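FW: tagging you since you asked about this chain on Friday. Here's the raw sequence from the shared folder, copied in full. Didn't touch anything.
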Amino acid sequence: MKKKLIVGIGVIFVLTVGYLGIKMYAANVAEAKIDDAIASVADYADMNYKNASVGLFDKNVHIFDVVVSPKGSSDKVNIKEIVINNVYDGDEDSAIPSALDISFNGVEIAIDQLGNDAQKIKELGYKDNLLLNFAIQYHYNKENNKINLNKLKIGAANVGDLDINFRLGNIDLSPEKLMGILFTYPQIELYGAQISYHDDSLMERLFKLTAKEQKKSVEQIKNEAIKTVEKEIEKEEDEFTKDVLKGIKGFIENPENLIVSIAPKKPLSLGQLLRVGDPKDMIKLLNVNIRS
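HL: got it, structure written out here
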């Protein structure tokens, strides 16, 4: 019995040491790749980090306490953590990764560095720094020139979260075509998109600031905004536009979530959309739906 116990402890010890050894090796490999990535942007920015780790099974890379400073500038951005879930090049000649899943947690933005907007932001009750979170996840298929942006999310505590996703077609991101995208973008096709916003006190702060500036109560400001939208609903003859206005009214009444869905009946080129003059026609063409 004693012998079995000793063997069992020995096995656990070997497995533990093996696990830690493999994890340390993976972390060293990750750090080497991170250092290579930092070197590649050395002409544009200085980057430093405290340490890095990598998941043994999911292979996610975590980079902690990152400091980024644009070249030649004294401004610095502190990032608590960067998590790289997936970066897939697919083709060494590709200008951008064909798949990317990365998030930045705790990006510290000094309010005083936001120029003319700094004072207005402080009036909303925010002080010194904002801690932003940012995430992007996409997949680009070079065979059919389609890109799915599954997630583009930016948010901050006591502010809110904005989440965007869309599907685009007829978009060539190969190195030889990427530089000319400024001229060819009208050919890009939009298949669908969704924009969602979850409020975390920003709207209430805006209502309070407006009320203070106009020397009214928050309830008065909300009621005035609701009445303005209701008048537009009453005089609007198009039922589709009425539904959009009702969605906006619902968000003013209860400013927690706002979701804007775009689902055209067939893919629309950006060139087609640019030629639409009337906003109402644009809303119909995009088949916009707003709900709160």
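FW: The first strand starts at residue 45 and ends at 48.
HL: agreed, and The radius of gyration is 25 Å.
FW: great, closing this out.
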